[in-house]
Design goal:
Arc Repressor Mutant, subunit A, Rna Polymerase Sigma Factor, Chain: A, 0% strand, mainly alpha
């Protein structure tokens, strides 16, 4: 798929609108989920997604191939998301969107238990610093290797490993604290 992505970028650099459409369809879900995990607001995430795709369109000819296309796109998404977070007013909060239930869900007890576990993890992840949340999302939800994560967030791979170590440690401490408080 990488060669196809590079070909799409090449065509986009020449102004091919159909290449942009194909690229957008290929990447919108992944990029949206990445942005949404940081912003917790579907409207802001959709806006940032459009900003990212516009940036890709404008800079398609500048892609040098030093990383994979997905790493390049997620790097743009990371920076656009950070910009959006910085523009928020101090103290401004964003409510989480309600989760949509899917057909064929487990029984009520399993659903409640899983929801409580997911809520605890979400609560603990939300307490992490932005740098730690980024590496956790990219590693666990995007399943990217540390080298690509380093390219996306713009730091050395060793820093990514250190951030992951501290993020895991903080998550374990937070989850243990919630368990001890009887919130499990």
């Amino acid at each position: 798929m990488t060669q196809d992505d590079r070909e799409l970028l090449s065509r986009m650099a020449k102004g091919d609108q159909s290449a942009l459409d194909a690229f957008y369809r290929a990447y919108e879900g992944r990029v949206y989920r990445f942005i949404r995990s940081k912003l917790n607001d579907s409207f802001d995430a959709a806006d940032v997604l459009n900003e990212v795709m516009f940036e890709v369109w404008r800079n398609a000819g500048r892609f040098e191939g030093r990383s994979s296309v997905s790493t390049w796109v997620l790097g743009i998404a990371h920076h656009k998301t950070i910009d959006r977070i910085r523009r928020r007013k101090p103290g401004e909060s964003v409510e989480l969107d309600p989760e949509m239930a899917e057909e064929g869900t487990p029984d009520a007890a399993q659903t409640l238990s899983a929801a409580q576990d997911a809520e605890q993890v979400r609560r603990c992840v939300d307490q992490l610093s932005e740098a730690h949340r980024s590496v956790v999302h990219l590693a666990f939800f995007e399943d990217l290797p540390y080298g690509e994560i380093a390219d996306i967030v713009g730091c050395p791979e060793g820093t990514v490993k250190t951030r992951m170590f501290h993020a895991k440690k903080a998550l374990m401490k937070c989850l243990q604290g919630l368990k001890e408080m009887g919130l499990s």
